[in-house]
Batch of 4 targets.
Target 1
Amino acid sequence: MPELPEVEITRRGIEPHILGKKITGVVVREPRMRWPVPRRIASTLTGRTVRRVRRRGKYLLLDCEGGSVIIHLGMSGSLRVLERNDAPGAHDHVDIVFGARRLRLRDPRRFGAVLWQPGEAEDHKLLAHLGVEPLSDAFTGDSLYRASRGRSVPIKQLLMNHAIVVGVGNIYASEALFRAGIHPKMPAGRLSRERSDRLVAAVRDTLHAALNAGGSTLRDFVDSEGKPGYFQDQRLVYDRAGEPCRVCARPIRAIRQGQRSTFYCPACQKS
């Protein structure tokens, strides 16, 4: 699933092409997404101008007059900017048209979404209860420490709780915990203030490294130009079970947490 870096890279890629541009049409080939595409989205969007392109967690927001388009890439979605009306593929479900240019959503598994929210985007039920952005000033060691008090859930699960901090998915949670030297199964309530500071710094460092590498392409992700990311070539623990730790050479281990694979070094990460 595209995580925060991949969504942010997509945002940066599409923004120069659609910011300030008027929507001249919407083509919906398959409305049956994770949340159905609104039936009247073409008439709702046509004539509106994109005033801002931003991200909230893993959601892309195209702010227009009177509301926002909310786009989610789901498990395998990608957005491409096309300078001409190329013939759509089997999984090209929605085009937002800007004259000769169009923004095309490709989503093989149809777990993504294209929605319209009148007024403030953050009032939508999908965004209303999201936590702090991990690259913002609001995400601090103190905020994470306070959020972890009294919680017995493993620290990795807390880090992936989008009501606390948004967009830190499975790959980057494993990588950040390794950088911070924290075992993924450690109960969140045992997180000290010092470790909280270290983990917040590790999350930021990991996300910035991923952004600089163009995100992670493990299966499907490509940016708005169709290019893959390369963070997977730099990963320290994720998907490296049995391989030597890059720090201590002990074999990386894999466990299951919340139906997701977690990777860690048993020597470098302490509970």
Target 2
Amino acid sequence: MKRLITLSVNGDVYEVAVAGHQRLIDVIRDVIGLTGTKEGCGEGECGACTVIMDGRPVNSCLILAAQGDGAEIVTIEGLMVDGGMSLIQRMFVEKGAIQCGFCSPGMILTAQALLDENPEPTEEAIREAVSGNLCRCTGYDKIVDAVLATALAMRGEPALAGATGSGEA
């Protein structure tokens, strides 16, 4: 038996019929057609499927679609500004925090949620925030640099190269 729910994804409203067992990631990818959200482990361990739901990062592979009924959901596509990359997306590129790119959507959304809550995070706060997102390519230093640079740019301050001491490779 299916249930009709209303999802607000990236500011657009979708009415979809979902089965009780259907996950949010499956509705976002297969029904709505937003494929930026990636499924890694399907068990909530890697963070690749992270979306922002009502201001908080969540693993969409662990959320039933029905739990999203009435929630405000943001996917990586929702961060775009005027058809281009948002500030945090640009900083991830500029700081070399995107390598294979598989973890990037979830990592960026987790970092964006942190910055929305705390626009002046410490390196420690950033590392704690992204600790649920696995990246096998960067070693995390460049990710931390990108988030720190985004925070500085949001305040109108120049970004420091290699803020965590990792330098530019």
Target 3
Amino acid sequence: MYPHQIERLTGVLLRGGLSALVATAPENVLYLTGFSPHDDDVGDAQTLAVFTPNASALIVPARDVPAVVAEGIDVDHVVCHGDLAAAFPERQSAEIRRIREIVSAAASSPAEALVAALGLAGVRGESLGLDEGRLSPAAWQDLVGRLAGAVPAAGPLAEARRVKSPYEIECLDRALRLVEESLDAVIQALERGMTERDAAMLHAGEVVKRGGSPLHGVVVMGDRTWIRSASPTDRALRPGDLVRFDVAARHRGYCASVARTAVFGEPAPPAERAHLALQTALEAASDAARPAVTAGHIVETAALVAQAEGLSAGTCRLSGHGIGLAPRERPEIAGAGVAIVEVGEVLCLEATHWDLGSMGLVIRDTLLMTTAGARVMNRSRHDLVVLD
């Protein structure tokens, strides 16, 4: 764990009068330990993490112990639960011996493993913060019954993750770069007859080629661009079509997303005017985003500019949020928002225009908050992309 994370998490403990933090949500487990739980886990958390000022612990299903050992996850204690369905060779390396040592002491359940891990970390009866993010009400009640003094901690952990370390900023920058490079490859390949599904699959493949993991993306064309959450279909590109991209990926656990709009051929004047107005509003929001201002101030600044450019408040919106180990993090950037922007936060700001039944336009930029104001991390421009 990097000194930045230790400092942020220790601050959570001090402010809450807590002896330990227990993470259940995948992004919080990753933040505390550097280990990324399986995304296909369903139900209550199978992977948990413990942080104290003096020790750290990771609780995993037995099936994940080989990955923890092979990846060299740097925690003080590893406790597992369940069975490992695998045979151990007669001649064993240091890695195999370590795996055998951990699984030989497996607990019967995640809750039992957590109790054991807390004991190893020296936490016995003191108050602790329990992340409720991946717990059902029944699982919460079960753990609270076992852990005296447990209080909800999902909110404080989310606050701790708001300000990013240099390493986190580097990871976010790389994630953003590979999403943009992949989108540029798609834009260069777009031609008449290419379908939404073709373009979406091409972007996902380009992300993988660059070492990232694709996240859910939106690619819509023509008379479907106004459907905000549409899934890609076999609708094919035709002359005059708008193409709306909203694509994302993860790199080293950190997320990035990009929203851009293109047009195949000459843009219609209404679309061109609306997009230019959105650009102007987004740039005004970026200029207004600086440390110590409120989220509401950023939104209000952009709204005034958008209206001055001829867009109505009913169709145009500026919003945003933090981004990091989760695609959407604190702070929330919304009208009347009271969150105060801090140095070191990485924010996504987006401007949208929805004309239902006709067209949808979205542009998004990622900003790093510095002492001097916002620095746009995107390398691609947010102009309306005109395809030949």
Target 4
Amino acid sequence: MNPLNEILRAAAPNATLKNIITYEQYLNELMPKYGIDTTLRQRHFLAQLLHESGAFNYVSENMNYSADGLLKTFGKYFPTRAEAEHYARQPDKIANRVYANRMGNGSESTGDGWRYRGRGLIQTTGKDNYLMASKGMFGDERLLWMPEILEQPEYAVESACFFWKANNLNALADRDDIVAVTRRINGGTNGLNDRQKYYHALYRNEYGNV
């Protein structure tokens, strides 16, 4: 089997070599710790990570939407164009509205939506999920007052591994069911084609020449 950095470079040409090298050491260390320890499990896990992080290019959710983007993506929360235009290009205000009063977050005015926006390689989102990850990873509640920790490479990887294990995604990976894995992560099938693209690219490059 090829070294992980070679597999990732071939499967994700839009990922920078610097980012691949940065994350490779933590992936090699932490995947086995969390039971992501077979080729099939790792293929599913890495395909989802590459999609969720834009090929390791970001570890914090980009909420910088235009009015059109808000109406298309978050129309439920911006029912009129006037409201969308009022919030457009203000990432903190957008997150506070979209994520208010759910996932353990308080109201829009508390700032919880922005504070606990998606972070890590599988976007941990919402106060409840930050708390669960914090207790699982550190045995305390530090992520509630230092959520930006999940933007550090080691913890960006570990939070993704923790999420994977906590949501029993190995079982779905063992069934080789990328649709079910995607639904468990995304709540739907957004980006399924991109996830499948990475999955097949990883499969092609696991063995032999890259």
